[in-house]
Design a protein that fits this description.
By secondary structure, the protein is of the alpha/beta class. The protein has helices spanning about 15-20, 45-55, 70-75, 80-90, 100-110, 125-135, 145-155, 180-185, 220-225, 240-260, 265-275, and strands at about 5-10, 25-30, 60-65, 95, 115, 140, 160-165, 210-215, 230, 280-285. The protein starts with a strand and ends in a 25-residue tail after the last strand.
Length: about 300
């Protein structure tokens, strides 16, 4: 049976440690520049080097988000000095949206694995084959794809596939929303999305999607061809990271050991995920449904609840 990867978010050094302790195979995190979560508690350059050492000591991997659109002077004057010490330290991969950044890293950092970000919006077999030919080692799929669409990509390309399995969903196509930029001058493509989709309009949260939860269909996701199971949440706490990662670790291991026949999700674990973070319910996203009213939280978010 093929192996897979549980990939955890790390918005801080403490979240990274929590992810490793909870059983993540790899973590993705940003630094002080060029990441799509500019307001996370991102570590500075020295702490990033320590983070690489930490995950490698524990036999795990670290992927760096370089997934914003860069200005010309950033690409030509800042990116090289930013990545060089991390590259020398053994950074496992960079996650990239900008094709200019992609080409620059291929030229100046030979051997560095590049993961094509979900914000590239590569959503079909031809795009997957193209980005593989350009030199990407992994494709991070948009959240809007169905299981059948994922299967069609995996059939024609040998690129490693990463897909979101838990956490926030965007109302817009992944990485293509400009609402925050238009309303408040804070662009998601520069890591500064203000999440206006979460706000009430005319008294209802018309664009506020429920969080994704795929515990019930993890076997189908893996059997569709997904290798890396990505948990969203770099803006969330170490407590959230540890809790969600530990639960997904449990069920990935169960599936790898028992197969689909022995796979069963306990209600207590579903409840624990909601206790860690509840935006107003959860859904299975687009894996088995194209769209639907039941994906949207029309009421206010429940009060914050703590969990042991």
């Amino acid at each position: 049976m093929r192996t897979c990867e549980v990939l955890a978010p790390a918005g801080s050094f403490e979240s990274m440690k929590a992810a490793v302790a909870a059983g993540a195979d790899a973590v993705y995190m940003g630094g002080t520049r060029f990441g799509a979560r500019a307001y996370a508690d991102n570590p500075d350059d020295e702490w990033l080097l320590k983070a690489i050492d930490y995950v490698h000591f524990h036999g795990r991997k670290l992927y760096l988000t370089v997934n914003t659109l860069l200005k010309e002077e950033e690409l030509t004057q800042e990116l090289y000095d930013y990545l060089l010490p991390l590259y020398r330290r053994g950074l496992d991969a960079v996650i990239v949206q900008d094709y200019g950044v992609f080409a620059y890293i291929k030229e100046h950092f030979p051997g560095m694995d590049i993961h094509a970000s979900t914000q590239m919006t590569i959503a079909g077999p031809y795009g997957a084959k193209m980005i593989r030919a350009l030199g990407a080692s992994r494709l991070v799929l948009p959240r809007e794809l169905s299981l059948e669409e994922i299967r069609s990509i995996c059939k024609v390309s040998d690129i490693e596939i990463e897909a979101f399995v838990h956490g926030a969903l965007c109302y817009c196509y992944s990485g293509q929303c400009l609402l925050s930029s238009l309303i408040g001058g804070r662009s998601g493509n520069r890591g500064r999305c203000a999440q206006p989709c979460r706000l009430p309009y005319n008294g209802k949260n018309l664009m506020n999607l429920k969080d994704l939860c795929t515990l019930g269909i993890l076997p189908q996701v893996l059997e569709a061809g997904v290798y890396s199971l990505k948990i969203e949440g770099r803006m969330k706490s170490p407590r959230y990271t540890a809790g969600v990662v530990s639960i997904y670790r449990k069920y990935v291991d169960l599936y790898l050991k028992e197969g689909r026949a022995g796979y069963h999700v306990d209600q207590a674990d579903r409840d624990a995920l909601l206790a860690l973070f509840d935006r107003g319910g959860q859904s299975q996203g687009y894996y088995r449904a194209h769209n639907g009213r039941d994906m949207v939280v029309l009421k206010e978010k429940p009060e914050y609840r703590d969990v042991n």
